[in-house]
Write a structure and sequence with these properties.
The chain is mainly beta and about 400 residues long. It is built from five helices and 20 strands.
């Protein structure tokens, strides 16, 4: 076989999808001219087929004289080839093919990937030249609204599916987060005990409470445990990033739950109520609730006292709602304080002057007139008046035998 036939056969041996060795001949206009070793034909290697970075300098990747393994991806024909056999070569796609081969059977393994951009429904990532996808539901243990914050970061993710033929490479960051959280929980539960007061960082705030990170494990402070006072919105009390001290109320290692309390670490409002509102003092408060038997008035956050219906007014009150309104600010007198029972009795009417009793009506024409006080009755005096003298009786007979007129 002569040299021409050998060259012809070599040319015929170069096919699309073949892996060939290429020697860099020169670099011009952002692309490299390549001699396909052992064939006598040339190829072109563009920056795009070396890296995904469009702003990169091709000279930082290749230089004349370099011999590289390259993938044949296209035969250039027509005017582009100027009548010669020229092939478009790729370094990037060959690396991707190698990566796909390396990924086969790797489902379940943890790998480090780089997030290239946020796309609809999740994140686009790169692993050794292979484009992968992390669905939004697999980014974290909770729904992530702002996926852009991950772009440019290197993260660990678990391989869920590898299908080179369909170009499918699915990963999950959530699986890694859950595994790490489970391990951290085991360590945390081993160190924590019910009743401990620990320091943590507020990680999330919801309508029903706040989650606090205790160093690898999140516990819930229910809205009822945020403050001694009434809390409408947990965000009014704490915010993400706040460092707070909490008391561990309950540990459930099997369920992985941790119940915490913020108010248990704070001084209770009833502890100082006797100093702030002693019996006999006058305090300003706000009507919080109205019932058939009275009104509950908040004196301080977490401290409510009862104004019994009989203590609302000197006038007869059928229903407290007829006299008071929720949210109304009133002055009350403290009648009795029992901190140990968390009870305090209040009065509104005690701060008002008692009305005078109505004058009685006793005259015939219906006019009022004050009643004069009656003079005390005098005891009836014994009557010493002697009866008239009657015939046949003497004074001595009437007074008796013991009477002696000389005694007068």
């Amino acid at each position: 076989m002569n040299e021409f036939e050998t060259l012809l056969n070599s040319v015929e041996d170069v096919k699309v999808r073949d892996v060939v060795k290429g020697e860099i001949l020169s670099i011009e206009n952002g692309q490299a001219q390549v001699a396909i070793v052992g064939t006598g034909v040339e190829g072109v290697l563009t920056l795009r087929e070396i890296t995904s970075d469009r702003d990169a300098d091709i000279n930082t990747f290749v230089k004349p004289g370099d011999v590289l393994d390259l993938l044949v991806i296209k035969q250039i024909v027509g005017k582009e080839a100027e009548g010669a056999n020229v092939y478009l070569l790729s370094l990037k796609r060959l690396e991707a093919r190698k990566a796909w081969t390396a990924l086969e059977g790797k489902e379940g393994e943890i790998v480090t990937v780089k997030v290239t951009k946020d796309v609809k429904g999740g994140l686009s990532v790169d692993f050794n030249g292979v484009r992968g996808f992390i669905p939004a539901s697999m980014i974290d243990t909770y729904f992530v609204k702002d996926t852009k914050k991950f772009v440019g970061e290197e993260i660990e993710a678990k391989i869920i599916e590898v299908n080179a033929q369909e170009n499918r490479f699915i990963l999950s960051r959530r699986a890694v987060v859950e595994a790490d959280a489970l391990e951290a929980k085991k360590e945390a539960f081993a160190q924590l005990q019910e009743g401990d007061i620990v320091e943590g960082t507020v990680s999330r705030v919801t309508n029903f409470g706040a989650f606090v990170d205790l160093g690898g494990i999140d516990g819930l402070v229910h809205v009822s445990e945020l403050s001694h006072g009434r809390v409408k919105r947990p965000s009014d009390v704490v915010k993400p990033g706040d460092e707070i001290q909490v008391k561990i109320l309950k540990l459930d290692e099997e369920a992985g739950r941790l119940s915490l309390s913020l108010k248990a670490t704070q001084k209770g409002p009833w502890e100082e109520v006797e100093e702030k509102a002693p019996a006999g003092s006058t305090v300003e408060g706000t009507v919080k609730r109205l019932t058939d038997f009275g009104a509950f008035v908040e004196l301080y956050p977490g401290v409510e006292g009862l104004v019994h219906v009989s203590q609302i007014s000197w006038e007869r009150v059928e229903n407290p709602k007829d006299v008071l309104k929720v949210g109304q600010v009133v002055n009350v007198k403290v009648l009795d304080v029992k901190p140990e029972e968390q009870r305090i009795s209040l009065s509104i009417k005690a701060l008002e002057e008692a009305p005078e009793r109505s004058a009685r009506r006793n005259n015939e024409d219906g006019e009022k007139r004050d009643r004069k006080p009656r003079a005390p009755r005098k005891a009836a005096k014994p009557s010493y008046e002697l009866p008239e003298t009657q015939e046949g009786f003497s004074l001595a007979d009437f007074l008796g035998d013991d009477f002696d007129i000389n005694d007068l």
